[in-house]
Every structure is written in structure tokens, then in C-alpha cells.
Design brief:
Layout: E1 4-6, H1 21-33, E2 40-45, E3 60-62, H2 65-71, H3 76-89, E4 90-91, E5 104-105, E6 124-129, E7 147-149, E8 155-160, H4 168-171, H5 179-200
Helix pairs in contact: 2-3
């Protein structure tokens, strides 16, 4: 994450540089869901604009942090202090957006462990973000053949499940980008094979 993330109170609430995004993006959904009104704002400056993945929606833009706060309906003084405190805590390092670099903060809670650069180059930008449901899981229990267990505990003769709906034991508290496709391919092959065998019998 190349900026900072603040909640509706214009305060940071987690380490934006904890790890590379494919490992952390699912975690951020849970974090934002725990904030007031389940909304947060990614705040960054002109130096980071081109580092973000292309978005369908343009960022909210302003010439100053207080102006940006007004556009986000945040307290301008609080957001200005949050950014100022962050900037004061940034320590020099060698920025590398492709790896866990040594750009970090010091004496700031929460810290930013990597990619910490001062937010000082106008214009300033923000993206409002909310949690979303992209799939459901922990829905059904299956055996090693992807056959569903029924309410009474017996294995179904003709019902199979694949993908995240049966992968809670694989995903745990988060997952890396692409792991859902891997789970779907492996369990889908098992379920498909089982369903085909069942149809032939």
C-alpha cells in the first residue's frame, strides 16, 4: 500500500506496509469492516499515483490535504495532523515498490513497515474503500472426494462441492491472490470426476 489508510475519524488504524498486497488485500476487507460506518480512505500524493493498479473510477483529487479532507467529509484539521504525524515519522530508505523495502516509520502507532514515503507532493488523492462479499465459504463440509456431508452426517451420494464454499480449512484468516483459482481447480476436478462417475453409474 503506497499511501496511508484512514477511517471516518481521519485516523490511521493499521500498518499499510505490513506485507505485499497479494497477501494482505483480503485482510483489509475485515479491517475496514471494523471501522465506523465500514468505510476507509486511501490517501496518497502525486508520487504514488502511477504505482496503483488502474482503477475504473478516478481518485478524488485536491490541491491540499485540508481540501481533500473536505471532499471526503472528514475533519480537515485531524486529517492534516494524521498526515503531518506520518510524514514526521518517515525514515529515509531505498524505495522499492516491488519488494519489502526499508522505507518505514519510527515512533508511530500503528507503524508503517515498508513503502513509507512522505505524503507531500501535490496534488493529493484519495480512494474511498468499503468491504465487499466476493464469495461465500465455510458453507458445506466435504470428504476427500468433494462429496458433501449431509445434516445427519452421512456422505451424499450425488452432491459435490468445489471452490471456496468448502475451503474454510484452507483459507483460514486470509489468502494470497490467485489461491481461490487454485482451490477451485483442485476441488473442481475432484468434484467433477465424482459427479461424472456418479452419472455413469
Amino acid at each position: 500500500m503506497f499511501g496511508i489508510v484512514v477511517n471516518k475519524k481521519a485516523e490511521r488504524f493499521y500498518d499499510e506496509g505490513e506485507d505485499i498486497w497479494p497477501k494482505r488485500y483480503a485482510i483489509w476487507g475485515r479491517l475496514v469492516a471494523g471501522q465506523p460506518d465500514q468505510i476507509a480512505y486511501i490517501v496518497f500524493d502525486a508520487s504514488s499515483l502511477k504505482l496503483f493498479m488502474p482503477s475504473l473510477f478516478p481518485p478524488i483529487t485536491a490541491g491540499s490535504i485540508p481540501e481533500l479532507a473536505q471532499k471526503l467529509a472528514l475533519d480537515p484539521a485531524v486529517l492534516d495532523k494524521t498526515v503531518s504525524d506520518f510524514n514526521a515519522a518517515v525514515r529515509p530508505g531505498t524505495f522499492n515498490h516491488n519488494d519489502l523495502d526499508d522505507c518505514r516509520t519510527e515512533g508511530l502507532t500503528p507503524p508503517k513497515s515498508h513503502w513509507a514515503r512522505k505524503i507531500e507532493e501535490a496534488p493529493f488523492y484519495a480512494y474511498p474503500v468499503r468491504p465487499g462479499i466476493t464469495f461465500t465459504y465455510l458453507g458445506v463440509r466435504v470428504n476427500e472426494e468433494s462429496r458433501m456431508f449431509m445434516t445427519e452426517g452421512q456422505v451424499s451420494g450425488n452432491m459435490f462441492a468445489a471452490g471456496e464454499i468448502m475451503a474454510g480449512n484452507v483459507l483460514g484468516r486470509g489468502y494470497a491472490a490467485g489461491i481461490g483459482m487454485t482451490i477451485g481447480c483442485v476441488s473442481g476436478r475432484l468434484a467433477g470426476r465424482g459427479a461424472a462417475n456418479n452419472a455413469r453409474n
